[in-house]
Amino acid sequence: MSTCSWSPTSLRASGFYAQVQLSLADVPANLHFSAHAISPSTVDVLAALRAAVDAARTAGPAPVSPALAGVDLSTLDEAGFGRLLAEAGLASMAAVNAALDSLPPPARERALLLFLSTLLTPS
Questions:
Q1: 3-state secondary structure 40-78
Q2: Residue 79's domain spans which residues?
Q3: Measuring CA to CA, which residue among 40, 100, 33 is closest to residue 73?
Q4: Residues 6 and 57: beta-carbon distance below 8 Å
Q5: From residue 9, how far is each of 13, 14, 53 by CA, in Å?
Q6: pLDDT value at position 2?
Q7: What pLDDT, on the 0 to 100 scale, is given for residue 102?
Q8: Which of 7, 23, 35, 38 is most buried by its number of CB atoms within 10 A?
């Protein structure tokens, strides 16, 4: 199972934070986990992590939308990227992570730039 199907929502609800790190070269996708002095106890983190991993395994890998196959992001402007997002139906962070992880790193960067541009461009 791809670790990009991971959605850290259940961990966050338990007071912990985990961030998906996309694969790069020969390093598989993984999690960056943060605990702080105000985080719940170590026993709590292990229980929360176990529950989150069980939920991710039960959910299985997030599918990558066929709408993303073969798209050359370098040819898209903000409007075209907005249409692609709507067509891809990225309804969860797990789906977004799986989609980003399926792209080569330069395309990931372009996707993130386009996404931020659409957020910051007045309608």
A1: CCHHHHHHHHHHHHHHHHHHCCCCCCHHHCCCCHHHCCH
A2: 66-120
A3: 100
A4: no
A5: 6, 9, 11
A6: 46
A7: 87
A8: 7
pLDDT confidence of residue 98: 85
Render each residue's pLDDT in the chain as its tens digit; 123 residues. Answer: 344 555 566 677 777 778 888 899 999 888 887 777 777 777 778 888 888 888 888 888 888 888 888 888 888 888 888 888 888 887 777 888 888 888 888 888 988 888 888 877 776
- Structural domains of the chain, count: 2
Work out whether strand 17-21 and strand 30-34 pair parallel, antiparallel, or are unpaired: antiparallel
Q: How many helices (H) and strands (E) does the chain have?
A: 5, 2
Distance of CA 26 to the CA centre of its chain: 19
Q: Do residue 8 and residue 44 come from a single domain?
A: yes
- Do 76 and 53 share a structural domain? no
CB 65 within 8 A of CB 24: no
Measured from the Cβ of residue 98, the count of other Cβ atoms closer than 10 Å reads 25
Contact 17, 33 (CB under 8 A): yes
